[in-house]
Design brief:
The chain has helices at about 20-30, 60-75, 160-165, 200-220; strands spanning about 10-15, 35-40, 80, 85-90, 95-100, 100-110, 115-125, 135, 145, 150-155, 190. It folds into 2 domains: about 10-115 and about 155-220, 3-Layer(bba) Sandwich (FAD/NAD(P)-binding domain), CATH 3.50.50; about 120-155, no CATH class. It is of the alpha/beta class. The strands form 3 sheets. Strands 1, 2, 3, 4, 5, 6 and 11 form a 7-stranded mixed beta sheet that branches. Strands 7-10 form a two-stranded antiparallel ribbon. It has a two-stranded antiparallel sheet with strand order 8-9. The radius of gyration is 20 Å and the shape is globular. It is built from 4 helices and 11 strands; from the N terminus they run βαβαββββββββαβα. The protein binds flavin-adenine dinucleotide. Flavin-adenine dinucleotide binds near residues 14, 50, 113 and 202. Keywords: Flavoprotein, Oxidoreductase. It comes from Arenimonas terrae. One of its GO terms (molecular function) is oxidoreductase activity. It holds the Pfam family Pyr_redox_2.
């Protein structure tokens, strides 16, 4: 993996799944310096048979698709780094991020942090007369008494970095964006599973292309 850029970049892309890599590739084609920082847990590797992907007849491992997208990004000049963006703050008109203890600066940021695998959790229902009681055992807390419980499956969406800057989340927990994939924070964009919509590779890539174009137009003009 590459080293983090020392100087202020045009766009820091948080997350190297299909959304992050395609956005960075498009930015590079617009002549913008983009760096992807990725923790390495993309769900893009998961689809074993991405039948929902356009132009993919039959089964194709998701990892092969992602590998190609990564190769394309690097060929376009995108810097892809393995790491975790731990914090994100405003820095004048731009942003400063802490990546594994190192500070990096960018004019714009794209949040492409995806979603985390759905988990099943047991949720207590309120006590009602006549229902059998169930003890829920929590490791660090006294076990509460409830009369019944329900199992709920939900995907957690990592939005904390954006929300800390003032970005809004929708009722379902995803980040709110406008038609240009812009959050309500100037310079902060989001694409892919982290925003509400269909969780599909093609959708993530389309949103990424829209975001890259909006970021390019928001930056000072260049020759493109
Ligand atoms: C089992 C399964 C089957 C699927 N099947 C299909 C299918 O057939 N067809 C289809 O189109 N789609 C399918 N999908 C959905 C598809 O995988 C997702 O829509 C797609 O991966 C979303 O891309 P993304 O870039 O938004 O997020 P992701 O691919 O999840 O990538 C996000 C990346 O951001 C990284 N990250 C998060 N936080 C940070 C941080 N703070 N710092 C650095 N990096 C960070 C994560 O580690 C991850 O690598 C499937 C998903 C699953 C789980």
């Amino acid at each position: 993996m590459n080293a983090l850029p020392a100087s202020r970049m045009d766009c820091l892309v948080v997350g190297g799944g299909p959304a992050g890599l395609v956005a960075a590739t498009n930015l590079a084609r617009y002549g913008r310096q983009a760096c992807v920082v990725d923790r390495g847990e993309t769900r893009g590797q998961r689809p074993r048979h991405p039948r929902r992907g356009p132009g993919v007849p039959g089964a194709q491992p998701g990892s092969r698709l992602l590998e190609r997208i990564l190769r394309q990004a690097e060929a376009a000049g995108v810097v892809v780094c393995r790491g975790v963006v731990e914090t994100l703050a405003r820095d004048g008109l731009g942003f400063v991020a802490e990546v594994d203890g190192v500070l990096v600066r960018a004019r714009c940021v794209l949040i492409a942090t995806g979603a985390i695998e759905p988990q099943t959790v047991a949720c207590p229902l309120p006590l009602r007369r006549g229902h059998p009681r169930v003890w829920l055992h929590a490791a660090a807390a006294p076990a509460p008494v409830v009369d019944t419980m329900q199992a709920i499956r939900f995907a957690r969406v990592p939005v904390d970095l954006a929300v800390a800057l003032g970005a809004r989340r929708a009722g379902d927990g995803h980040l709110e964006v406008d038609i240009r994939q812009s959050t309500c924070v100037p310079g902060l964009y989001a694409a892919g599973d982290v925003v509400a919509g269909l969780s599909e590779v093609a959708v993530a890539m389309a949103e990424a292309a829209v975001a890259a174009t909006a970021i390019h137009r928001a930056l000072p003009p260049n020759r493109h």
